[in-house]
Design a protein that fits this description.
By secondary structure, the chain is α+β, with helices and mostly antiparallel strands. It contains 15 helices and 36 strands. The strands form nine sheets. Strands 17-18-21-24-25-26-27-28 form an eight-stranded parallel barrel. A six-stranded antiparallel sheet has the order 29-30-31-36-33-34, covered by helices on one side. A four-stranded antiparallel sheet has the order 1-2-6-5, covered by helices on one side. Strand 14 and strand 15 form a beta hairpin. Helix 4 runs parallel beside helix 5, helix 7 packs parallel to helix 9 and helix 13 runs parallel beside helix 15. The termini are far apart. InterPro entries: A-amylase/branching_C, Branching_enzy, GH, GH13_cat_dom, GlgB, GlgB_N, GlgB_N_E_set_prok, Glyco_hydro_13_N.
Length: 735
């Protein structure tokens, strides 16, 4: 290809390496002649500045190609790259500016980083791709990189160049598929996109897959942002996290949608920023005694109604809630108050919005080309191609990014079941079997194992939590023994059973007794978290309090009993916002929780007090969390009294002298002298009762010391009698 053909490609935004034309090029027997070119389609005149002198460049093409031919010795220093020349551009509009030439800088991305990316193991990929403020050879600017291996050409478009894709074409870094360009003079907060020329000659404009920040919806451009300025104060928290494993520790999670937990009362359409939420949400969570906040996705997403689960910017904190530093402040303040932060993470799929990852370079790059593998029929989204090393690298680096840059303590991985099975939400003929003829998505399974292994290698005590609803083996078992390598798994079976049970009229609960007891059959097969999540209070499922049968008093008594049963059951805990005070309405993402209820009826405030007391009891008793995942931490006393709908069991700490006995009555009947078994001959006292009047109960509980009788009862060696209030649980502890 001769120089004219190269120039034609530059003019028509079709060149894979504009540096072959633009910038400095030497010729002559000893390369004594330097030809400097620049393409400025909006310029009336361009001057070349070298040292203190200037030379007007020759317009060689009407479209805006300018050229100057000079003696090499004229250049400032031939032993350095880049050469120290600049351009003064006189635009047709009358505007004049002096710039450094982007095309006088050598490639900056190390060959090893390119290799590791293509191999799938460049785990700090976010430090290399995307946009980064940089100083190269004493020149400040922004370096852009994007992966688009099948593109014919790629350009940076931004305010700086009037969104003209002809002005800043990028250079292909060969077989890596990465394109790069350093643009001198650009600064933080520059708004930009990538203009991609596809192999068929069409142009598409895409947001940066690695953007750290972006425009607020409905705008979709990326914004240059430096994430390294914030001064973290959480060293003590981080050190404790590195040294203390979470499995035998209390874990009580408050799940939050940051856009609807609370809004500005003076402007209900305005979201609180994360800095504002830090001043409101963190003290609230601390008072109630939760150990962690789990945030529904805070990555950039275009549609509020998706709740954040259709992510278009996996590396970008959503602009709805302020700046990246606002979220850093939120996390920092949580840690300073002893509260961990978990993020919902969505590697299962991504939306089909034109500006996003779909058909990124004109081909199915991040997704599968075959819709039977790459298109999700239930959600109308694309499915990541986990078998492509660069795609799996992109997602693994994204997981690490949130822990590195934002100090996040854990990820709750959404929709894991949809990743594990190729036939998920598909009918016969709509999916392709794996290479062995099965329905398992082997590439996704390997991706999840790889992700968990890498995360735990870098951040050993991270909370990696799977939302997985099937019986897939070993979700929370190590990858090297055939598991998926997660730390925890949501117990969806328990959740479905317990909510089904509580929705029944107490008169008929005896016919559904197994729903109370069956979960113990598998409670220790995984490291379970018991979830009462947002999914259970939307789409016609009704709020937790509204699921409960009976009159007003019974509904609140049932809710307290549900929560006490949950907190006493083996497994860590998660409760969605609003459940702690008995919100009547279903959750809706576009309005605040119904905080006014706390002023309208004492039962709502008393329920909140109950949750605070429940967490206090939980945190203060190792028997409720020290052996959550071991059968040694649980023992039935009586699971067979279905006629009275009463169960009782023991929770043990590692020191079996430290234990609690729970007795639960799921009917509105009061039992005045009910016989229960006890596991030791020590006297017992009541430490908690959900029927206490301070929580809105009837006060039918009693404050006495129970002396065991050495006479076996049910599955215990001793017995006693006690008064059991209606729709209530009583917790006993050895004196």
């Amino acid at each position: 290809m001769d120089i004219d053909q190269h120039i034609e490609r530059i003019i028509h935004s079709a060149h894979y390496d504009p540096f072959q034309v633009l910038g400095v090029h030497f010729s002559g027997e000893n390369e004594e002649t330097a030809t400097i070119r620049t393409f400025q389609p909006h310029a009336r005149k361009v001057e070349l500045l070298i040292g203190n002198g200037s030379t007007e460049m020759t317009r060689t093409r009407e479209e805006g190609m300018f050229e100057a031919v000079i003696d090499r010795s004229t250049l400032a220093d031939t032993n350095l790259d880049p050469y120290t020349y600049r351009f003064t551009i006189h635009y047709h509009s009358g505007f004049v500016e002096t710039i450094n030439d982007p095309y006088r800088f050598l490639p900056q991305l190390d060959a090893d980083d390119q290799y590791l990316f293509n191999f799938g193991t460049n785990y700090r990929l976010y430090d290399h791709l995307g946009s980064h403020c940089a100083v190269i050879r004493h020149v400040a600017g922004v370096i852009f990189r994007v992966w688009a291996p099948n593109a014919e050409a790629v350009a940076v478009i931004c305010n700086f160049n009037g969104w003209d894709g002809r002005i800043h074409p990028m250079r292909s870094l060969g077989s890596s598929g990465i394109w790069e360009l350093f643009i001198p003079g650009l600064q933080e907060n520059e708004v930009y996109k990538f203009r991609i020329r596809t192999s068929d000659g069409n142009f598409i404009d895409k947001s940066d897959p690695f953007q750290f920040y972006g425009e607020i919806r409905p705008k979709t451009a990326s914004i240059v942002r430096d994430l390294n300025r914030y001064q973290w104060q959480d060293d003590k928290w981080q050190e404790n996290k590195r040294t203390v494993a979470p499995y035998d520790r209390p874990l009580s999670i408050y799940e939050v949608h940051p856009g609807s937990w609370q809004r500005d009362p003076d402007d209900p359409d305005r979201f609180f920023t994360f800095r504002e939420l830090a001043e409101k949400l963190i003290p609230y969570v601390k008072k109630l005694g939760f150990t962690h906040i789990e945030l529904m996705p805070v990555m950039e997403h275009p549609l509020d109604e998706s709740w954040g689960y259709q992510v278009t910017g996996p590396f970008s904190i959503t602009s709805r809630y302020g700046l990246p530093e606002d979220f850093m402040y939120f996390v920092d303040q949580a840690h300073l108050n002893g509260i961990g932060v978990i993020l919902d993470w969505v590697p299962a799929h991504f939306p089909k919005d034109d500006h996003s990852l779909g058909h990124f370079d004109g081909t199915s790059l991040y997704e599968h080309e075959d819709p039977r593998l790459g298109s999700h029929p239930e959600w109308g989204t694309f499915i990541y191609n986990y078998g492509r090393k660069e795609v799996s690298n992109y997602l693994i680096a994204n997981a690490l990014f949130w822990m590195d840059k934002y100090h996040i303590d854990g990820l709750r991985v959404d929709a894991v079941a949809s990743m594990l099975y190729r036939d998920y939400a598909r009918r016969e003929g709509e999916w392709l079997p794996n290479c062995y003829g099965g329905k398992e998505n082997l590439e996704a399974i390997e991706f999840l194992r790889h992700t968990n292994s890498v995360v735990f290698n870098h951040y050993p005590n991270t909370l990696m939590i799977a939302e997985e609803s099937t019986s897939f083996y070993g979700v929370s078992k190590p990858a090297d023994v055939g598991g998926l390598g997660f730390g925890f798994k949501w117990n969806m079976g328990w959740m479905n059973d317990i909510l089904s049970y509580f929705s029944k009229d107490p008169l008929f609960r005896k016919f559904h007794h197994n729903a109370l007891t069956f979960s113990i059959m598998y409670a220790f097969t995984e490291n379970f978290i018991l979830p009462m999540s947002h999914d259970e209070v939307v789409h016609g499922k009704r709020s937790l309090i509204d699921k409960m049968p009976g009159d007003l008093w019974q509904k609140f008594a049932n809710l307290r009993l549900l929560l006490l049963t949950m907190w006493m059951h083996p497994g860590k805990k998660l409760l969605f916002m609003g459940g702690e005070f008995g919100q009547w309405s279903e959750w809706y993402c576009k309005r605040s929780l119904d905080w006014h209820l706390l002023e309208e009826n004492d039962l709502h405030r008393q329920t909140m007090d109950f949750v605070e007391a429940l967490n206090t009891m939980y945190l203060g008793n190792p028997s409720l969390w020290q052996q959550d995942f071991s059968p040694h931490g649980f023992r039935w006393i009586d699971l067979d009294d279905r006629n009275n709908s009463i169960i009782s069991f023991v929770r043990y700490a590692r020191n079996r002298e430290d234990h609690l006995v729970g007795v639960f009555n799921f009917t509105p009947q009061t039992f005045f002298k009910y016989t229960i078994g006890l596991p030791s001959d020590r006297p017992y006292r009541q430490i908690f009762c959900s029927d206490d009047v301070v929580y809105g109960g009837s006060g039918a509980n009693e404050d006495v010391i129970y002396t065991p009788v050495a006479d076996p009862y049910a599955q215990a060696e001793y017995r006693t009698t006690l008064k059991i209030p209606p729709l209530a649980g009583v917790i006993l502890k050895p004196c």
